[in-house]
Amino acid sequence: MLNRLKPIESATPDLGLSLGRWMPSPMKGSILVFSACVLAAGILSAGESVELSKIEHFCPKGRVQDKEYNPHLPIIDALIERGTNVVPLLIKLLGDDTKIDHQIIDYWPAHTVGDIALVILTDLTTDPGWTKSTIPGASWDEVLGKPATNYALIPPYYQLQDCKAKHGSNEIQRRWQKIWLEHQEQMYWDAKDRCFRLRSNQNAADQARR
Hints:
The chain has 210 residues and is mainly α. The chain is built from 8 helices and 4 strands; from the N terminus they run ββαααααααββα.
């Protein structure tokens, strides 16, 4: 995941994304890693279910899909293998307020399945430089609205909680559904940059790499 202490620019000018979210987690043993791999093998088979409540701790730095920071997240690997089909699967979970019983994001007091689905969607639509959202309207600030300014610690967490308190998690789901309906035909997975992009922006992305 991203270093959430630094702002992330959205695809729309003057909108930022800042997601500070970290607290150290114990090292996972090889048995846990193996078990997670076995679990991921059947995650998206029959019923297209996504067991985000079983996901492991996210590294404080980088996106969830960045292997140098999150080498052992088989659930994320399984999601990415679904290509753009994973977007509506995650959108379905945005309204799920089921609490998760273990620490995934450092410093966050609590997590729900919907919270983690939103974090994953945000990371999957953030460029490899961690500076911009690659899909219009999909940045953290654009989806949630005005950032919380009255919290010195982990403002993105409280930004999310404030939005849910005012509008409900179903409203976040509705906003992402609107993004998906508008851009689904143009969206593709950029295997090099490991993020979703729009085909209309593909040439610009190719030029930026040169």
